[in-house]
Amino acid sequence: MDAAPHYRPLYRQVYDFLVKQIADSVWRPNDTLPSEQALAEQLRVSQGTVRKALDTLVAEKLIERRQGKGTFVAEHTQERALFRFFRLSEPGGERTVPTSSDESVKRRPAKAAELRKLHLDAGEQVVEIVRTRSVSGRPVIYERSVLALRHFPDIDRRQPLPNTLYAMFQQQYGVNIVSAEEELRADLTRAEDARRLPLAVGAPLLHIERVAIALDGSRVEWRVSRCDTSHLVYAVTLS
Amino acid sequence: MDAAPHYRPLYRQVYDFLVKQIADSVWRPNDTLPSEQALAEQLRVSQGTVRKALDTLVAEKLIERRQGKGTFVAEHTQERALFRFFRLSEPGGERTVPTSSDESVKRRPAKAAELRKLHLDAGEQVVEIVRTRSVSGRPVIYERSVLALRHFPDIDRRQPLPNTLYAMFQQQYGVNIVSAEEELRADLTRAEDARRLPLAVGAPLLHIERVAIALDGSRVEWRVSRCDTSHLVYAVTLS
DNA sequence: GAGTGGTCTAGACCACGCA
DNA sequence: GCGTGGTCTAGACCACTCT
Questions:
Q1: What string of pLDDT tens digits covers the 239 residues of chain B?
Q2: Which residue, of A6, A157, B16, B213, has the fewest CB within 10 Å?
Q3: End of a domain among B50, B73, B96?
Q4: Which domain holds residue B28?
């Protein structure tokens, strides 16, 4: 624990150390972390200071603690990623699990908008994934994901892709998605949408753009989803 | 600090006590709370236990702490309520401050849907507030709020109403809005919308329903907003 | 200088999971 | 019974604000 420029509290330095271990895949999903006592001795700080850092990581959902068992690196399971970042549900409140299908995966140079959204360097390559998602057999979402290839080498040769990408990002590439910035607006169904979804041109469509952000702050995915909200709603709790 | 059924940790009991003081307006917005030491002595617990409860309240934005000055009950200022619960902004990211106008305020018995959304008893009265919001002179939101009258006696005689209601809820009625559940879907402009907003019937419109939840868990407002998202987006960060 | 919150420590005891 | 995390305490020192 050496001093940082302009002073960082000890618990912050411990936090940074722990994050780095996870980011570098020293500790992988579902691994057990050393106990508080062990970390305290290793880092030459008190147990209370380690605890404060661990509490922060729990709040950020990067680790989970179970009394009597230990501290574990949180895993992005299918369900978890779904409930955390997939906000569409039935109007009452029941969460729905969509299936994905009809995908196309292409590698190509990034376009101008993608360079900007993902903070890429000119000429960098991306992988574009197009798919349709269905809820109880009915296609309701037409979605295009663009990934920076630098974070996911050869992902375009890994087909078939799972229903939720983020678990694979974490397990195969060590990329932890920790937050997502979404922008929503209402739009009309266009001919391109109508080819994928059973909607008439001119029907209302919820347009969602997402930038997914990894543990190290990099913007790794830009996703545009066009959703039929005649039977689903986008549900979010502000607090 | 007496025992609770099935055991509540001490810091939880301290938390409950502090929340009650705020909910009962014993401590009002901008008031200074007693110091950690004073609270610890009053409640017969250690300073660390008080601190843990205070940290939770800070995370929930119910209080603010300033080193060297003290601990204060957080105030719902116009700006703060706006940035916290008003998610519409310009596509780039700049937050926009809308003005409200053209309001009508009516007291009437609750309808069936309102009873359900606000968990009211049959026959209870509500106040309906209808208004239009504009951004840089352009009407972009047509909004209908329904409030349970029991939480806001005579609010319908308090006109004119402020741009953001939640600061008034807190200051005039001691009702702290702590979270809001929103449901969004895409819709088309109807004749009723077109009378209020400069849109053609059939143009896309973002339909937002919100239930605002107070500190004690009661559902105090049901709001339906119909938004022109041709120049604005609904922006939210999932984490 | 006095009073506040912010950081850090050391140690005790409890609740839980497992062998 | 041992090791884990969860709770609680007591006290030290630092950083900031105001007078």
A1: 443 446 899 999 999 999 999 999 999 999 999 999 999 999 999 999 999 999 999 999 999 999 999 999 999 888 888 889 999 998 877 888 888 887 899 999 999 999 999 999 999 999 999 999 999 889 999 999 999 999 999 999 987 888 889 999 999 999 999 999 999 999 999 999 999 999 999 999 999 999 999 999 999 999 999 999 999 999 999 99
A2: A6
A3: B73
A4: 10-73
Q: Does residue A69 reach within 7 angstroms of strand D, measured from its CB?
A: yes
Residue whose CA is minimally distant from C17 C1':
A68
pTM (2 decimals)? 0.91
Question: Chain A residues with CB inside 8 Å of B227's CB?
Answer: 186
**Which chain B residue shows the shortest CA-CA distance from A56?**
B59
- The shortest CB-CB distance from A239 to any of B179, B184, B185 is to B179
Nearest Cβ partner for A204 among B91, B186, B238? B186
B239 part of a folded domain: no
Do B138 and B87 fall within a single domain? Answer: yes
Split into its structural domains, chain A has a count of 2
Classify residue A195 as exposed, middle or buried by CB count within 10 Å of its CB (0-12, 13-18, 19+).
exposed
Asked whether the beta carbons of residue B238 and residue A205 sit closer than 8 angstroms, the reply is: no
A33 and A88 in a single domain? The answer is: no
